[in-house]
Amino acid sequence: MAMYRRPSLSEYVIARLITLVIFVTFLFSFILLVTPDKFKSIYFYITLFTASQIVLLISVYYGTKQVSKELKNVEDYLSGASVNLEPSARFFTYEFERINEKLILTLRKMQKREKDKRKYTAKIKLKNRQRSDMLSAIAHEFRNPIASIMGYSQTLTEDEEIPTALRLKFLRKIYNNGEKIEELLSRLLLWNRFESGRQKLQLSKFDLNPLAHEVALNLEDKYKKREIVVEGDPFVVKADRALMEIVLKNLIENALKYSNDIVTVKFEKDRVSVIDKGVGISKDNIDKVTKKFFRTDEHSWDNSMGLGLAIVKQILKLHNTALEIESEEDRGSTFSFSFSS
Fold it and tell me: The pTM is what?
């Protein structure tokens, strides 16, 4: 079946005029035929002519009203009031139909542009807020070690007769705080590489179990009164050794910070788990602790700018695996991930 095509405005006007002429001609011809001759005076013809003009004017008036209605529809579309109407509804000529379709298309593009603009503005505000949070976190983390370095240095400078043992103790404190600042900077630089997508994997095949022993020994030197137990069989993987060392170090040190008991690193089948019996994590925060710059007030957590677990999450994601957390407040936590050998 052929599709209906709306007439153009000129076709519509000509068709209406022809229809009107035929109708008026037929009507007044009929009147002339049925009217007796005795009534056909000069006044009769004047009246008949006047009536035909009135009919013509009424027809033009209603045609103008129809065009005005079409223009009102166009105005509605321009104001956006009727943008959800069907593109061809309520329009009787081809030109107005096309204008309608073009206006709808233009308005929808404008609406999309406005929506994109709002999303972009919201994204900029979020980035600014995150940048502010990041600067606040950095300032918070750097303030304590810098204050310690300045305090110990000032004491050593002002008191020349300070005992040698105490002097050495203060120098170790200065060194340890400098080491902490270096570690914080390393984490920031590593996170920046993740954010920019510049961190690439250097894959090699190695045993994760001896690496865990190495990391545990280094951390036991730092946390001298703590014990780290590594259990399980050899665990050979193909991964980035340097990044996996960061994962193990962050998870084990995280467990050491928030517990006072033994920390266990367990290798079983294809899973690595770091287990502590510490303060645990609340249900409200368990899904948030791996987000960057996240900090929580519960149990005075010190999450190293909120980047430690966020970095672990990103490294494991690069290795096509994920960090899983099981935790119960005041009972402890288990951080684990699977790894195919």
Answer: 0.57
